[in-house]
Design a protein that fits this description.
The chain is of the alpha/beta class. It has one domain: 2,3-Dihydroxybiphenyl 1,2-Dioxygenase, domain 1, CATH 3.10.180.10. The protein is 22% helix and 30% strand. The chain is built from 3 helices and 8 strands, in the order E-H-E-E-E-E-H-E-E-E-H. The strands form 2 sheets. A 4-stranded mixed sheet has the order 1-4-3-2, with helices on one face. Strands 5-8-7-6 form a 4-stranded mixed sheet, covered by helices on one side. Helix 1 crosses helix 2.
């Protein structure tokens, strides 16, 4: 069961110019929105038109984590190699994974540590959109050698005066 919007930190209901968002064509807008709400903690910001059969639903998780679901072809799918990466907190990944697994109809991988000091959870929506929640690992769980490499590589790639 998803957390009520009143309890979800970071969600705003204000309307703003979105610097970037995902627009996903789905056959059943209401069913797709229900999956995103129940499995991945999104809220429904609004539907157009309101009611049981909208042509578009605007979903949001945190500020600037917006997805527009648009009514479209029943055969629309997301192409291979495309993924949506979403910032998350380290402490929420296990619960998100459990919720996504309980809703079903999808692939759930992780959470698992990456070589670049994050812990990632990958979930594939029923439409084939790979969604990766990524959180920075807390200090005691980070790889110090990787951090040193990153600092060195960044310095090597700075423009020289």
């Amino acid at each position: 069961m998803s957390t009520s919007p009143e309890l979800q930190e970071g969600i705003t209901r204000d309307i703003y110019g979105m610097p970037m968002f995902v627009s996903l064509e789905v056959a059943d807008v209401r069913a797709a929105a229900a999956w995103f709400r129940e499995a991945l903690d999104f809220i429904e910001l609004f539907a157009m038109p309101p009611g049981d059969d909208p042509a578009l639903i605007h979903l949001r998780r945190w500020r600037y984590q917006d997805i527009l679901l648009r009514r479209g072809s029943a055969v629309a799918t997301v192409g291979d190699g495309l993924q949506l990466s979403i910032a998350a907190t380290f402490d929420e990944l296990e619960a998100l994974a459990a919720r996504a697994r309980s809703v079903g109809g999808t692939s759930v991988e992780g959470p698992a540590d990456t070589a670049w000091n994050t812990r990632d959870l990958a979930v594939t929506s029923p439409q084939g959109l790979r969604i990766v929640y990524t959180a920075r690992r807390p200090e005691p769980l980070r790889d110090a050698a990787f951090n040193a490499d990153m600092n060195r590589w960044a310095a090597e790639q700075l423009p020289q005066p």
